[in-house]
Amino acid sequence: MRYLLYRLRRLAIVLAAVTFVTFLLVNVLPGDVAYEMAGMDSSEEEVQEIREELGLDRPVVIRYFEWVGGVFVGDWGTSFISSEDVWHAVTDRFPVSFELMLLAQILALAMAIPAGMASAFRPNGRADRIIGALAFASVSMPSFMTAILLIFVFALGLGWLPATGYEPLSSGLWANLKPMILPALSLALVEWTILMRTLRVEMISVLQENYIALARAKGMSNLRILWVHALRPSSFSMITLLGLQVARLLGGTIIIEQIFGIPGVGRLLIHAVYTRDFVVIQGCVTFFALAFVTANFLVDIAYAWLDPRVRTRGSHG
Amino acid sequence: MADVTSSGNADKDDGKPQIDRNALAIAMHRKSRSFGLYFWIPMIWLIIVAVACVFAPLWGLPPADEIDWAYIQSPPVEGHPLGTDNLGRDLLSRIIYGGRVSLTVGFAAPFIGVGLGLILGMIAGYYRGWADEVIGIMIDAWLAIPGLVILLLFSVVFGGSLFMVCLSLGLLFIPTAARITRAATLNYAGREFVLAAKAMGASDFRILRKEVFPNIIWPLIAFVLIDIPIAIVIEGALSFLGLSVKAPTPSWGGIIAEGREVLSTSPHIALYPTLVMFLTVLCFNLVGDAIRRRLADVREGAI
Amino acid sequence: MGEIILDVRNQRTAFATARGMLNAVDGVSFTLERGKTLGVVGESGSGKSVLSRSVMRLLPGNSVVPSDSKVILNGKDLTRLSETELRRLRGPEMAIVFQDPMTSLNPVLSIGKQIMEVLMFHMGMKKGPAKEKAVELLRAVGLPQPDVRVNQYPHQLSGGMRQRVAIAIAIACEPDLLIADEPTTALDVTVQAEILDLLQRMVKERNMAMILITHDMGVVAGRCDEVAVMYAGRIVEKAPVRELFNNTRMPYTAALLSSIPKVTDPPHRKLDAIEGRPPDLINPPQGCPFAPRCKFAGPECEEQVPPLEGPGAHQYACVKPLGEEVAA
Ligand SMILES: Nc1ncnc2c1ncn2[C@@H]1O[C@H](COP(=O)(O)OP(=O)(O)O)[C@@H](O)[C@H]1O
Ligand SMILES: [Mg+2]
């Protein structure tokens, strides 16, 4: 319990630090919004006027605290460029990014778990070597390259899946999933390797455990031993990693959403970067940091499910 | 070394073949640890790439931004061995000049990041207390933002010069390097030889430099080796988004992004740089892995 | 003569290691009848566990077993069976209880699940009846509140209770052969006797055959019919339990016997370990492997490995057996 409080305090400080530094960066460094808004050939007075209008002439610390106050009541500011409410802009697009990340993680796990098991079953065996080589090739292939190749083969070459686009869930599950497959796969093909390696290492040691020997002595099949007896005790590091990976995955969605024309938070951010829409950038970064922190809390909960020693702590010891 | 071939059918009651058998085991062990083809083949590719990029002006290629009006978006032809892009610029030349950006960033960024991480980690691990706490929070905060987002922020604020790209990319490598250094410093700062040096009145800086630094440099070098291909990949992503060095300076990610627009009609524009980049990153990974194993071997489990 | 359950003939098990071949079990033969218990005693490292795993055919990948080694269980030669066929025998025909109950139960599965899966896989039971049977088994092994315990996880049970669960798992499918590999070594002295009594009762009630492995001569005394003493991968003396205790022939056995803690000893006294160390199994010494540590050894002991032989049921592998000094 004390540890949990410590973690919470630390996470709060982290969030404050992230938002403050972001705020500083977008507000005090060169390339002031007011210049952008005033246009290329505007006078210093015009710029100053806009500044006052936006309240940019006041000290940055005060503005930061105002902004933080707003964040708690859902007022994340308004885009200088599209006049869109930032909170709505982010939350409207988040489900799309979330779906993409979720699909990517599911695909990555679907590749990593069987591959990790096959590798761990006979370390240095043939399967292990082949999977290891594939993983090596896979990490050497950033997601944007994978995306290009996937588009080239499955969209342009075979024509099985669309190269770009997004359909909301309301137009049907398959219609929604179809354009998501290639983007999710592009992300998953990078992410699976690290999950696989982590699972492999942990499972190799779990397979040496006495309870696995007992499961063999009980006449259980290899498949059952791997899936039922070894997988859960082997997946603790992998689950931690899933939480940490959220940061990488969020980064990955930015580029993948851009390539596949998916209207998610990443695309919002990139667009804001291109147009120097600082309020939106600030909102997106805050949102990403929040998402990361939340994901890592979910990981703690996943632990409890995986390990009865954590789950039943109340009833014993 | 003993006669290795005769040891296969060694008689176990005889003393001498035992020694042979051990010699065989040792020889096999050595062999498995020396640099093999998995090191040399990738190394050759990396040398080719490095030479091609470093001496780019010597190869008599057309300048990377020269437009050949006769060949716009052309497949490989005489004079343009890899064809031209959608503006009629020679693809081979662009890939080679683009490689200069990738290699510069690939080497500079990890050194910057690991250097800064080293300093922060040593401070945190040596002085502990509030310095440790503050640095810990900074690192946590750093890790809570996706790396690409940090880079986007920097590119917006500081613009896209090669130096800024190296610097901001280098910042990404601080957290892990700092953590490794901190752990190692904690470990060494309590050892007898450091305490002895302290007792003899050595300054903190001297202790860090003379006693702690030599002990953590190897893990960090291994770390730099892992980071090189990562830096190349991230620079690729950044330039793919058009947020690395400014056009018309070519970069691999940028060429791939341009090629993506015409992927259906001229796939070669995106696929050649993709292939080159993939091979280069793969080879860096393979070479780094081999060297890392060697280092771990020489220093027995220090990594 | 009762029905012969297990017949082990010339079992050899070697491991390929970095230093060379390690002969962990080196030509072991014995038979076991229904309802009987064979005690296997030996110092740590003498090959007891490897022998038990050789019988179960549960050996690691670096093991080598020559083709003339045979393990015949209920008339079936296990060395000729495929992995799938063996799997069908593990549980219904042979089962094992491991030494350390702290690590031999899966921490993430409830104990009920761990019993039920044997019943469901081997007996084709459905979930409901399997659970009822699991509760019944837990009751049979003397676990208090079996209907509550069945849903608990191993970490919620004490060591002794876990070993009871392990026994419940082992007897779930009524095996003909039960191997208990040092079942009480990791337990408190107070529960050791309880667990041994439980095992003995289960063997009687279900008319099984048991191999009781231990390094403690005291354990085999009242609980076995026959005892095999192992040293360096070989059986060095084998006899009905009474005969072995009353008429010990092999100096190694005598040394083991003298290391039994006596009632008069202060509690927790460290056992007298036998002086010297067991031989290197990769480069074993010439002749009798015990000779370098043996008080009675003479030059003749180092000539060759003595074979296991003797009159009737009492066999021993010794050139200068005890009780024959006068003759010698
Ligand atoms: N997988 C293995 N690889 C190599 N040697 C092993 C292996 N398993 C056991 N051994 C060796 O076999 C010998 C007998 O071990 P074991 O049967 O466990 O002894 P114990 O009588 O204490 O049960 C020991 O010397 C041990 O080191
Ligand atoms: Mg043992």
From TrEMBL, chain A:
GO terms for molecular function: dipeptide transmembrane transporter activity. InterPro entries: BPD_transp_1_N, MetI-like, MetI-like_sf. PROSITE patterns: ABC_TM1 (PS50928). The chain crosses the membrane at residues 100-121, 133-160, 180-199, 239-260, 280-306. CDD domains: TM_PBP2. Pfam families: BPD_transp_1 (PF00528), BPD_transp_1_N (PF19300). It is a multi-pass membrane protein. One of its GO terms (cellular component) is plasma membrane. Residues 94-303 form the ABC transmembrane type-1 domain. It is found in: Cell membrane. Keywords: Cell membrane, Membrane, Transmembrane, Transmembrane helix, Transport. Its main location: membrane. Belongs to the binding-protein-dependent transport system permease family. This is Peptide ABC transporter.
UniProtKB/TrEMBL annotation, chain C:
GO terms for molecular function: ATP binding; ATP hydrolysis activity. It is a peripheral membrane protein. It comes from the Bacteria. Gene3D superfamilies: P-loop containing nucleotide triphosphate hydrolases (3.40.50.300). Residues 8-257 form the ABC transporter domain. The keyword Magnesium does not apply. The keyword Zinc-finger does not apply. GO terms for cellular component: plasma membrane. It is found in: Cell inner membrane. One of its GO terms (biological process) is peptide transport. Its main location: membrane. CDD domains: ABC_NikE_OppD_transporters. Pfam families: ABC_tran, oligo_HPY. Keywords: ATP-binding, Cell membrane, Membrane, Nucleotide-binding, Transport. Belongs to the ABC transporter superfamily. PANTHER family: DIPEPTIDE TRANSPORT ATP-BINDING PROTEIN DPPD, OLIGOPEPTIDE TRANSPORT ATP-BINDING PROTEIN APPD. NCBIfam families: oligo_HPY (TIGR01727). This is Peptide ABC transporter ATPase. It comes from Pseudooceanicola atlanticus.
